[in-house]
Amino acid sequence: MPSWFTDSFLDVAEDAQDALDENKTVLLYFHLDGCPYCDAMLTQNFKSGENLAFIKKHFSVVAVNIRGSREITMSESESKTEQALSEMLAVKYTPTIIFFR
């Protein structure tokens, strides 16, 4: 993942507040290791390309592996693994982008 992606503690509410403080929107980038389409999106949009400056300016990007085991906190009473969150949000294909504000 690019070094400029948000260094998140995977607390979505906290990430959303931090992004709001910077006048940005949280962009959850759902990916899968080894996915050629994910690699293409990273290369063409997050590492270079004409949209890179726009994305950096307007979005706080958090990478989520759809088969990952890191805990993501959704609220004080709810946390899920990356995989469980992907299932809850019905992410079936990668890459998938979901915006949080």
Automatic annotation (TrEMBL):
Taxonomic superkingdom: Bacteria
Domain Thioredoxin-like fold stretches: 21-100
Pfam families hit by this protein: Thioredoxin_2
This protein's name: Thioredoxin-like fold domain-containing protein
Species in which this protein is naturally found: Candidatus Thioglobus autotrophicus
Gene3D superfamilies xrefs: Glutaredoxin (3.40.30.10)
InterPro entries in the record: Thioredoxin-like_fold (IPR012336), Thioredoxin-like_sf (IPR036249)
Lineage of source species: Bacteria, Pseudomonadati, Pseudomonadota, Gammaproteobacteria, Candidatus Pseudothioglobaceae
